[in-house]
Amino acid sequence: SAVDGAGGTDSAEAPLFGARCLAMFSDGRGAYCAVSPDGARSVEASGRWEVINGQVVLLAGGGAERTSHFRLEQTGAHPLNNISYTAPIHISLDELKKDFENPISLADCIPKGG
């Protein structure tokens, strides 16, 4: 998995994201989450991923894709059921190298019990 803390854009432009996370599994499944710069909205997506023409493409097909949009408040995350992606998510390999942290293993992501 990888986390983007750079905002996903050049410094001269307003950032598109406050943070992003991308998890890519060896079986071809993946998950993506992005939070707006103001922290008021988020999107989560999961489905198949492929690398196509130098782009990681999430929601690349297979029928099990899913997206959810949320309004984030102190009282919790509230689903925005009337909003969804109509196209796959594309992240260039260059953007992945530049804007995301190096991958870590899934075992390193799971909290250890005491």
Protein topology:
Blueprint: E1 2-4, E2 19-24, E3 29-35, E4 41-52, E5 55-58, E6 66-73, E7 76-79, E8 89-92, H1 93-99, H2 106-109
Antiparallel strand pairs: 1-2, 2-3, 3-4, 4-5, 4-6, 5-8, 6-7
Description:
By secondary structure, the protein is mainly beta. It contains two helices and eight strands, in the order ββββββββαα.
Mean of pLDDT: 82
Largest sheet geometry: 8 strands, antiparallel
Unreliable stretches (pLDDT < 50, length at least 5) are 6-10
| Rg calc | 15 Å
Q: Please estimate the helix content.
A: under 10%
Number of helices: 2
How would you describe the shape? Answer: globular
Strand content: 35-45%
Total count of strands: 8
How many angstroms does the end-to-end distance come to? 24 Å
SSE string, helices as H and strands as E? EEEEEEEEHH
Structural class: mainly beta
Task: Spell out the key features of this protein.
single chain, 114 residues, mainly beta, 8-stranded antiparallel β-sheet, 2 helices, 10% helix, globular
Summarize the structure in short.
It contains two helices and eight strands, in the order ββββββββαα. It is mainly beta.
